[in-house]
Amino acid sequence: MGREKPDFYALKAQKEGYPARSVYKLEEIHQKFGVLKRGARVLDVGSSPGSWSLYVLKFLKGSGFVVGVDLNPVTLKEFPPNSFFFQGDIFEPKTEATLRDKGPYDIVLSDAAPLTTGNRVVDTGRSFRLCDRVLELASTDLLTHQGTLVMKIFQGGDEKLLTDRMREQFTQVKTLRPQAVRRESFETYLIGLGKRRS
Ligand SMILES: C[S@@+](CC[C@H](N)C(=O)[O-])C[C@H]1O[C@@H](n2cnc3c(N)ncnc32)[C@H](O)[C@@H]1O
């Protein structure tokens, strides 16, 4: 299948030891908006196979910590002491309880995505529900005052509802479709900077 053919970013990820090419999306988001900070407590939602978490852990250089949650396991070679990964569904109360136990966080990242069906209405609807849940979690004290939220959304659904809600909660809201997003993909990223007091 054409989509599986290693492209520039897939080959670069292989060479640089990242389990997925998606790392270059986070890299570009960080280069544009400076979303990562040394010493930060970071939650990575949809963390499997682990590229984003690995990028953040390298950036943190042993400071702060990373908590990763995904339906699937993370496949990193090493798990540094400032990291904690677990399998869970973000819609489940027991997952939220673990996230709260390990939190709060200064930065919430979500590259979470549903398994795609090829039906754009279904896929954008599922992506919307994931973002809606991530935003629901981030609007509580799980994400600290002045905190940052980055989340992936499939375009073509109700993403304006999300950006409107984000504007109420963050002093700045940006969108970015990084270069590493495949041409045929309809994903983009919503970035909330400077969480307001709730
Ligand atoms: C594109 S992958 C993430 C790639 C990751 N950022 C990386 O760089 O390695 C999307 C992930 O979202 C996860 N996901 C989807 N629905 C989820 C849910 N309800 N709870 C937790 N994770 C979920 C999937 O299992 C999948 O691993």
Strand % is 25-35%
Kindly state the percentage of residues in helix: 25-40%
Element order, helices and strands? Answer: HHEHEEHEHEHEE
Helix segment count?
A: 6
Q: Which outline best applies?
A: globular
Number of strands: 7
The set of bound ligands, ions and cofactors reads: S-adenosylmethionine
Radius of gyration (CA) equals: 16 Å
CATH class categorisation: Alpha Beta
Strands in their spatial order, largest beta sheet:
3-2-1-4-5-7-6
- Global mean pLDDT: 95
Could you describe the 3D structure shown?
The chain contains six helices and seven strands, in the order ααβαββαβαβαββ. The longest helix is centred in the middle third of the chain and has 19 residues, at 120-138. It starts with 7 loop residues before the first helix and ends with a strand. The protein has helices at residues 8-16, 23-33, 51-60, 93-102, 120-138, 159-169, and strands at residues 41-45, 65-70, 83-87, 105-110, 143-154, 170-176, 187-195. By secondary structure, it is α/β, with parallel strands linked by helices. The model has no long low-confidence stretch (mean pLDDT 95). It has one domain (2-195): Rossmann fold, CATH 3.40.50.150. 35% of the residues lie in helices and 25% in strands. The radius of gyration is 16 Å and the shape is globular. A seven-stranded mixed sheet has the order 3-2-1-4-5-7-6, with helices on both faces.
Task: Describe what is shown at a glance.
The protein is of the alpha/beta class and 198 residues long. The chain has six helices and seven strands, in the order H-H-E-H-E-E-H-E-H-E-H-E-E. Helix content is 35%, strand content 25%.
